[in-house]
Amino acid sequence: MHAESITTTHMVSMAGGEFWMGDDKFYPDEGPVYAAWVEPFLIDEHPVTNEQFGAFVAATGYLTTAERPLPAEEYPDMSDSERAPGALVFRPTPGPVPLDNWRAWWEWVPGASWWHPQGRDSSLQGRATHPVVQVSFEDASAYAEWAGKRLPSEAEWEFAARGGLERATFAWGDELKPNGELMANTWQGEFPYRNTSANGWIGTSPVGSFAPNGYGLFDMIGNVWEWTVTEYQDRHVVVHPCCVGEDARPGIEPAEMRRALKGGSHLCAPEYCLRYRPAARSPQSDDTSTTHIGFRCVLDVG
Q: Which of 51, 53, 192, 224 has the fewest CB atoms inside 10 Å of its own CB, making it the most exposed?
């Protein structure tokens, strides 16, 4: 079942062309810097929201990865409770902890899903315009197909995120806070235990809460990581992977396919995850659902 018509409202036209992709000043997996090429395309001006994803679910009855139990025939040694639907939820720690163990702040929560992002007792009340989270690559792809669109490649995403600035560190230039202004929803304070909020927001913020980049695109940096269709290549060693690099459900091996996530999220902090930049990338298995991963769609021109 598809949407009745393809809506290009709130999409921005990208002229495409050649641009310098990557960065050689931060993490090894961002290099080498090279001249990439993308064809013209349209891209959503902001990540897909809870309201938009809800319309898709209402029209199709789609069940996300997090809402489906693991099949007993594939995991016969697991109990019913271990196979129960659920997803990863970020939990701040009581105080400082070593930053080499992501399990200290990520918890597998049965019942967590896109409409109960923190667990069964949570809801989307007042969060219609926040980016949808707890969506796997499969979920994002299903929405894109229904909408008559597709997910972007890593190159398309980075081209759009740069906003026309060649080789700039951030989507808005080389200064983190120009004139003292916070430009994106990233972690403020000491990770992972003290968050003083990004302009009043802890966790996700409504799309468009921060200034757009030079192409008029919102939240290309921060708020939520975003899926791309590009398979992540382990050409370089990832020094400090800032996202969960494997499935945290007990007893489950990570999915073989990993995609390149882009943009960083509200959990990115300089002491742990300095990945709130256009060139930054992070590997994630296709079946992962968490409280800091969302997506946006693109559309081919012509």
A: 51
